[in-house]
Protein backbone atom coordinates (compact mmCIF):
# COMPACT_ATOMS: atom_id res chain seq x y z
CA UNK A 1 0.00 0.00 0.00
CA UNK A 2 1.39 3.39 -0.98
CA UNK A 3 1.85 6.14 1.59
CA UNK A 4 -1.27 8.30 1.92
CA UNK A 5 0.93 11.38 2.42
CA UNK A 6 2.03 11.11 -1.21
CA UNK A 7 -1.34 10.56 -2.84
CA UNK A 8 -2.88 13.41 -4.87
CA UNK A 9 -5.75 15.47 -3.52
CA UNK A 10 -8.43 17.52 -5.30
CA UNK A 11 -9.06 20.98 -3.89
CA UNK A 12 -11.66 23.08 -5.65
CA UNK A 13 -11.03 21.31 -8.95
CA UNK A 14 -7.25 21.69 -8.63
CA UNK A 15 -5.13 18.55 -8.33
CA UNK A 16 -2.39 18.89 -5.72
CA UNK A 17 0.23 16.14 -6.17
CA UNK A 18 0.52 15.19 -2.48
CA UNK A 19 -0.79 16.01 1.02
CA UNK A 20 2.18 18.12 2.21
CA UNK A 21 1.64 21.88 2.46
CA UNK A 22 4.26 24.47 3.35
CA UNK A 23 2.15 27.04 5.24
CA UNK A 24 2.69 30.82 5.19
CA UNK A 25 5.63 31.94 7.32
CA UNK A 26 6.35 35.67 7.54
CA UNK A 27 9.86 36.59 6.46
CA UNK A 28 9.68 40.36 7.08
CA UNK A 29 12.22 41.01 4.34
CA UNK A 30 10.21 43.17 1.94
CA UNK A 31 10.85 46.80 1.10
CA UNK A 32 7.69 48.75 0.22
CA UNK A 33 5.82 45.44 0.18
CA UNK A 34 7.90 44.12 -2.72
CA UNK A 35 9.20 40.62 -3.32
CA UNK A 36 13.01 40.77 -3.29
CA UNK A 37 16.07 38.56 -3.63
CA UNK A 38 15.44 36.94 -0.24
CA UNK A 39 11.97 35.78 -1.25
CA UNK A 40 13.22 34.45 -4.58
CA UNK A 41 15.73 32.09 -3.02
CA UNK A 42 13.51 31.27 -0.02
CA UNK A 43 10.52 30.13 -2.07
CA UNK A 44 12.72 28.41 -4.66
CA UNK A 45 13.90 26.13 -1.83
CA UNK A 46 10.40 25.53 -0.52
CA UNK A 47 8.84 24.60 -3.86
CA UNK A 48 11.74 22.20 -4.41
CA UNK A 49 11.11 20.48 -1.06
CA UNK A 50 8.78 17.77 -2.30
CA UNK A 51 5.67 19.54 -0.94
CA UNK A 52 2.61 19.51 -3.16
CA UNK A 53 1.44 22.97 -2.05
CA UNK A 54 3.35 26.08 -0.96
CA UNK A 55 1.51 29.11 0.44
CA UNK A 56 3.31 32.45 0.19
CA UNK A 57 3.46 34.34 3.48
CA UNK A 58 0.90 36.86 4.77
CA UNK A 59 0.53 39.49 2.06
CA UNK A 60 -1.23 42.70 2.98
CA UNK A 61 -4.17 44.00 0.96
CA UNK A 62 -3.36 47.62 1.87
CA UNK A 63 -0.46 49.58 3.39
CA UNK A 64 -2.25 49.87 6.75
CA UNK A 65 -2.98 46.12 6.64
CA UNK A 66 0.67 45.13 6.96
CA UNK A 67 1.85 43.54 10.18
CA UNK A 68 5.26 45.23 10.00
CA UNK A 69 7.04 47.70 7.77
CA UNK A 70 8.77 44.74 6.08
CA UNK A 71 5.72 42.67 5.13
CA UNK A 72 4.77 41.77 1.58
CA UNK A 73 1.88 43.58 -0.08
CA UNK A 74 -0.32 43.14 -3.12
CA UNK A 75 -1.93 46.55 -3.36
CA UNK A 76 -0.08 48.16 -6.30
CA UNK A 77 1.19 47.31 -9.77
CA UNK A 78 4.85 47.08 -8.78
CA UNK A 79 4.03 44.48 -6.13
CA UNK A 80 1.96 42.52 -8.64
CA UNK A 81 4.84 42.46 -11.14
CA UNK A 82 7.27 41.31 -8.45
CA UNK A 83 4.87 38.58 -7.34
CA UNK A 84 4.52 37.44 -10.96
CA UNK A 85 8.32 37.11 -11.16
CA UNK A 86 8.27 35.04 -7.97
CA UNK A 87 5.58 32.73 -9.35
CA UNK A 88 7.45 32.34 -12.64
CA UNK A 89 10.69 31.54 -10.81
CA UNK A 90 8.93 28.93 -8.66
CA UNK A 91 7.29 27.31 -11.70
CA UNK A 92 10.70 26.92 -13.32
CA UNK A 93 12.06 25.34 -10.16
CA UNK A 94 9.18 22.89 -9.65
CA UNK A 95 6.50 22.74 -12.29
CA UNK A 96 4.14 20.45 -10.36
CA UNK A 97 4.05 22.31 -7.04
CA UNK A 98 0.91 24.37 -6.54
CA UNK A 99 1.21 27.97 -5.31
CA UNK A 100 -1.24 29.92 -3.16
CA UNK A 101 -0.80 33.36 -1.63
CA UNK A 102 -2.17 34.28 1.78
CA UNK A 103 -4.05 37.60 1.77
CA UNK A 104 -4.24 39.35 5.11
CA UNK A 105 -5.09 42.50 7.02
CA UNK A 106 -3.45 42.84 10.43
CA UNK A 107 -6.09 45.10 11.96
CA UNK A 108 -5.11 46.17 15.46
CA UNK A 109 -1.98 43.98 15.32
CA UNK A 110 -0.34 46.06 12.59
CA UNK A 111 2.02 49.01 12.78
CA UNK A 112 5.13 47.17 13.95
CA UNK A 113 8.72 48.13 13.21
CA UNK A 114 11.19 45.96 11.31
CA UNK A 115 11.47 43.01 13.74
CA UNK A 116 15.09 42.34 12.76
CA UNK A 117 16.07 45.75 14.13
CA UNK A 118 13.66 46.59 16.94
CA UNK A 119 10.63 44.99 18.53
CA UNK A 120 8.17 47.81 19.07
CA UNK A 121 4.93 49.22 17.77
CA UNK A 122 5.30 52.43 15.77
CA UNK A 123 3.42 55.57 16.67
CA UNK A 124 0.54 56.67 14.48
CA UNK A 125 2.81 59.35 12.98
CA UNK A 126 5.57 56.84 12.21
CA UNK A 127 3.17 54.29 10.72
CA UNK A 128 1.29 56.91 8.72
CA UNK A 129 -2.20 55.51 9.29
CA UNK A 130 -4.61 54.48 12.00
CA UNK A 131 -4.73 50.88 13.10
CA UNK A 132 -8.19 49.45 12.44
CA UNK A 133 -10.28 47.12 14.58
CA UNK A 134 -13.91 46.03 14.96
CA UNK A 135 -14.00 47.34 18.55
CA UNK A 136 -11.97 49.38 21.00
CA UNK A 137 -8.85 47.93 22.58
CA UNK A 138 -5.20 47.56 21.60
CA UNK A 139 -3.35 44.27 21.34
CA UNK A 140 -0.04 45.70 22.59
CA UNK A 141 0.03 47.81 25.74
CA UNK A 142 2.28 50.39 24.08
CA UNK A 143 0.30 50.64 20.84
CA UNK A 144 -1.87 53.52 19.76
CA UNK A 145 -5.57 52.83 20.24
CA UNK A 146 -7.04 51.44 17.01
CA UNK A 147 -9.85 53.25 15.24
CA UNK A 148 -13.14 51.41 15.48
CA UNK A 149 -14.08 50.68 11.89
CA UNK A 150 -16.93 52.61 10.33
CA UNK A 151 -19.18 51.29 7.59
CA UNK A 152 -16.97 53.10 5.08
CA UNK A 153 -13.85 51.46 6.54
CA UNK A 154 -15.47 48.04 6.33
CA UNK A 155 -16.53 48.48 2.72
CA UNK A 156 -13.08 49.81 1.78
CA UNK A 157 -11.25 46.86 3.35
CA UNK A 158 -13.56 44.39 1.62
CA UNK A 159 -12.78 46.16 -1.67
CA UNK A 160 -9.04 45.98 -0.85
CA UNK A 161 -9.28 42.20 -0.48
CA UNK A 162 -11.07 41.95 -3.82
CA UNK A 163 -8.47 44.13 -5.57
CA UNK A 164 -5.64 42.05 -4.11
CA UNK A 165 -7.37 38.89 -5.33
CA UNK A 166 -7.42 40.26 -8.87
CA UNK A 167 -3.69 40.95 -8.59
CA UNK A 168 -3.07 37.44 -7.25
CA UNK A 169 -4.79 35.97 -10.30
CA UNK A 170 -2.79 38.21 -12.65
CA UNK A 171 0.42 37.19 -10.89
CA UNK A 172 -0.30 33.55 -11.75
CA UNK A 173 -1.15 31.93 -8.42
CA UNK A 174 -3.25 28.78 -8.28
CA UNK A 175 -5.17 29.88 -5.22
CA UNK A 176 -5.69 32.31 -2.36
CA UNK A 177 -5.71 31.60 1.34
CA UNK A 178 -7.49 34.18 3.49
CA UNK A 179 -5.95 34.70 6.92
CA UNK A 180 -8.69 34.37 9.54
CA UNK A 181 -6.45 33.29 12.43
CA UNK A 182 -3.65 34.55 14.74
CA UNK A 183 -5.69 37.53 15.86
CA UNK A 184 -5.60 39.43 12.57
CA UNK A 185 -8.56 41.41 11.28
CA UNK A 186 -10.85 38.61 10.06
CA UNK A 187 -10.25 36.75 13.32
CA UNK A 188 -10.89 39.96 15.28
CA UNK A 189 -14.35 40.21 13.73
CA UNK A 190 -15.10 36.52 14.30
CA UNK A 191 -14.24 36.40 17.99
CA UNK A 192 -16.57 37.68 20.72
CA UNK A 193 -13.45 38.56 22.68
CA UNK A 194 -12.50 41.29 20.17
CA UNK A 195 -15.79 42.05 18.41
CA UNK A 196 -18.13 43.81 20.81
CA UNK A 197 -20.05 45.77 18.18
CA UNK A 198 -23.75 46.39 18.60
CA UNK A 199 -24.47 46.95 14.90
CA UNK A 200 -24.97 44.49 12.02
CA UNK A 201 -21.26 43.53 12.08
CA UNK A 202 -21.27 42.21 15.65
CA UNK A 203 -23.42 40.47 18.23
CA UNK A 204 -24.29 36.80 17.74
CA UNK A 205 -22.09 34.35 15.85
CA UNK A 206 -23.80 35.00 12.50
CA UNK A 207 -23.32 38.77 12.78
CA UNK A 208 -19.67 38.33 13.78
CA UNK A 209 -19.14 36.11 10.72
CA UNK A 210 -20.60 38.70 8.38
CA UNK A 211 -17.36 40.61 7.69
CA UNK A 212 -15.32 37.50 6.90
CA UNK A 213 -18.09 36.08 4.71
CA UNK A 214 -18.39 39.37 2.81
CA UNK A 215 -14.62 39.26 2.21
CA UNK A 216 -14.95 35.69 0.93
CA UNK A 217 -17.77 36.66 -1.43
CA UNK A 218 -15.82 39.65 -2.75
CA UNK A 219 -12.66 37.59 -3.32
CA UNK A 220 -14.63 34.76 -4.94
CA UNK A 221 -16.27 37.24 -7.34
CA UNK A 222 -13.00 39.04 -8.11
CA UNK A 223 -10.95 35.91 -8.85
CA UNK A 224 -13.36 33.04 -9.62
CA UNK A 225 -10.63 31.07 -11.41
CA UNK A 226 -8.56 30.69 -8.24
CA UNK A 227 -9.07 28.08 -5.52
CA UNK A 228 -10.08 29.73 -2.25
CA UNK A 229 -8.88 28.52 1.16
CA UNK A 230 -8.90 29.73 4.76
CA UNK A 231 -6.56 29.62 7.74
CA UNK A 232 -8.63 29.41 10.93
CA UNK A 233 -7.89 29.02 14.65
CA UNK A 234 -8.71 25.83 16.52
CA UNK A 235 -10.23 28.00 19.25
CA UNK A 236 -9.42 31.19 21.18
CA UNK A 237 -8.18 29.68 24.47
CA UNK A 238 -10.08 32.46 26.26
CA UNK A 239 -13.18 32.38 28.48
CA UNK A 240 -16.01 33.56 26.27
CA UNK A 241 -13.88 33.32 23.12
CA UNK A 242 -14.36 31.19 20.02
CA UNK A 243 -14.73 27.47 20.63
CA UNK A 244 -14.18 24.73 18.09
CA UNK A 245 -17.94 24.51 17.47
CA UNK A 246 -17.99 28.22 16.53
CA UNK A 247 -15.09 27.70 14.14
CA UNK A 248 -16.83 24.70 12.55
CA UNK A 249 -19.99 26.76 12.00
CA UNK A 250 -17.96 29.51 10.32
CA UNK A 251 -16.14 27.02 8.09
CA UNK A 252 -19.46 25.46 7.08
CA UNK A 253 -20.77 28.89 6.06
CA UNK A 254 -17.51 29.68 4.27
CA UNK A 255 -17.73 26.43 2.32
CA UNK A 256 -21.20 27.42 1.15
CA UNK A 257 -19.62 30.63 -0.22
CA UNK A 258 -16.99 28.79 -2.27
CA UNK A 259 -14.11 28.08 0.13
CA UNK A 260 -12.60 24.71 -0.80
CA UNK A 261 -10.03 24.02 1.93
CA UNK A 262 -9.14 25.05 5.44
CA UNK A 263 -5.91 25.04 7.44
CA UNK A 264 -6.59 24.59 11.16
CA UNK A 265 -3.92 26.19 13.33
CA UNK A 266 -3.47 26.49 17.09
CA UNK A 267 -5.33 29.78 17.55
CA UNK A 268 -2.78 31.93 19.37
CA UNK A 269 -2.23 35.64 18.85
CA UNK A 270 -5.69 37.05 19.52
CA UNK A 271 -5.15 38.41 23.02
CA UNK A 272 -2.22 38.50 25.42
CA UNK A 273 -4.49 36.93 28.08
CA UNK A 274 -4.83 33.70 26.11
CA UNK A 275 -3.91 30.59 28.11
CA UNK A 276 -2.41 28.24 25.56
CA UNK A 277 -1.93 24.63 26.70
CA UNK A 278 1.63 23.79 27.63
CA UNK A 279 3.67 21.42 25.51
CA UNK A 280 2.57 20.26 22.08
CA UNK A 281 -0.92 21.28 21.05
CA UNK A 282 -2.36 18.31 19.21
CA UNK A 283 -4.18 20.37 16.60
CA UNK A 284 -5.23 17.32 14.64
CA UNK A 285 -8.15 16.63 17.00
CA UNK A 286 -9.51 20.09 16.16
CA UNK A 287 -8.86 19.53 12.47
CA UNK A 288 -10.79 16.27 12.72
CA UNK A 289 -13.79 18.09 14.22
CA UNK A 290 -13.76 20.62 11.36
CA UNK A 291 -13.40 17.85 8.78
CA UNK A 292 -16.20 15.72 10.22
CA UNK A 293 -18.65 18.58 10.77
CA UNK A 294 -18.12 20.38 7.46
CA UNK A 295 -16.79 17.85 4.93
CA UNK A 296 -14.27 20.40 3.68
CA UNK A 297 -10.70 19.50 2.70
CA UNK A 298 -8.81 20.03 5.95
CA UNK A 299 -5.12 20.53 6.69
CA UNK A 300 -3.73 20.16 10.22
CA UNK A 301 -0.96 22.54 11.30
CA UNK A 302 1.28 22.77 14.33
CA UNK A 303 4.19 20.69 15.65
CA UNK A 304 4.06 18.13 12.88
CA UNK A 305 7.69 17.20 12.31
CA UNK A 306 8.03 13.47 11.54
CA UNK A 307 6.96 11.62 8.37
CA UNK A 308 5.32 8.79 10.32
CA UNK A 309 3.45 11.34 12.44
CA UNK A 310 2.15 13.06 9.28
CA UNK A 311 1.16 9.74 7.73
CA UNK A 312 -0.67 8.69 10.91
CA UNK A 313 -2.70 11.93 10.99
CA UNK A 314 -3.99 11.27 7.49
CA UNK A 315 -4.47 7.52 8.02
CA UNK A 316 -6.53 8.18 11.17
CA UNK A 317 -8.84 10.56 9.28
CA UNK A 318 -7.84 13.53 11.44
CA UNK A 319 -7.02 15.61 8.35
CA UNK A 320 -6.68 15.36 4.58
CA UNK A 321 -3.24 16.98 4.58
CA UNK A 322 -0.57 18.38 6.88
CA UNK A 323 1.27 21.68 7.11
CA UNK A 324 5.03 21.41 7.61
CA UNK A 325 6.34 24.86 8.51
CA UNK A 326 9.33 25.35 10.80
CA UNK A 327 10.53 21.82 10.14
CA UNK A 328 10.65 22.63 6.42
CA UNK A 329 12.85 25.64 7.19
CA UNK A 330 15.18 23.41 9.19
CA UNK A 331 15.19 20.77 6.47
CA UNK A 332 14.16 22.09 3.02
CA UNK A 333 14.33 18.51 1.69
CA UNK A 334 11.74 17.27 4.21
CA UNK A 335 9.33 16.07 1.53
CA UNK A 336 11.93 13.89 -0.17
CA UNK A 337 13.21 12.62 3.18
CA UNK A 338 9.62 11.66 4.07
CA UNK A 339 9.20 9.88 0.74
CA UNK A 340 12.31 7.82 1.44
CA UNK A 341 11.13 6.92 4.93
CA UNK A 342 7.64 5.97 3.75
CA UNK A 343 8.88 4.18 0.60
CA UNK A 344 7.00 6.58 -1.65
CA UNK A 345 7.81 8.46 -4.82
CA UNK A 346 7.95 12.26 -4.94
CA UNK A 347 8.84 14.65 -7.74
CA UNK A 348 12.50 15.58 -7.97
CA UNK A 349 14.66 17.34 -10.56
CA UNK A 350 16.34 14.82 -12.85
CA UNK A 351 19.88 15.50 -11.52
CA UNK A 352 18.67 14.84 -7.93
CA UNK A 353 16.91 11.54 -8.56
CA UNK A 354 19.95 9.29 -7.98
CA UNK A 355 20.33 10.80 -4.51
CA UNK A 356 16.87 9.64 -3.41
CA UNK A 357 16.44 6.29 -5.14
Topology:
Blueprint: E1 9-11, E2 14-16, E3 20-22, H1 37-47, E4 53-60, E5 72-73, H2 77-93, E6 98-104, H3 124-127, E7 132-133, E8 147-148, H4 151-171, E9 175-179, H5 185-190, H6 205-222, E10 227-233, H7 244-256, E11 261-265, H8 284-294, E12 297-301, H9 307-315, E13 321-323, H10 326-330, H11 334-341, H12 353-356
Parallel strand pairs: 3-4, 3-13, 4-5, 4-6, 6-9, 7-8, 9-10, 10-11, 11-12, 12-13
Antiparallel strand pairs: 1-2
Helix pairs in contact: 1-2, 2-4, 4-6, 6-7, 7-8
Stated plainly, the CATH topology is called TIM Barrel
Along the chain, the helix and strand elements come as: EEEHEEHEHEEHEHHEHEHEHEHHH
What's the CATH architecture name?
A: Alpha-Beta Barrel
Shape: globular
Number of individual domains: 1
The pLDDT mean sits at 94
The fraction of residues in strands falls at: 15-25%
**What CATH first level would be assigned?**
Alpha Beta
Describe this structure in words.
The protein is α/β, with parallel strands linked by helices and 357 residues long. The protein has one domain (4-356): TIM Barrel. It is built from 12 helices and 13 strands. It has an 8-stranded parallel β-barrel with strand order 3-4-6-9-10-11-12-13, surrounded by 6 helices. Strands 1-2 form a two-stranded antiparallel sheet. It has a two-stranded parallel sheet with strand order 7-8. α9 links the parallel β12 and β13 (321-323). It starts with 8 loop residues before the first strand and ends with a helix. The mean pLDDT is 94.
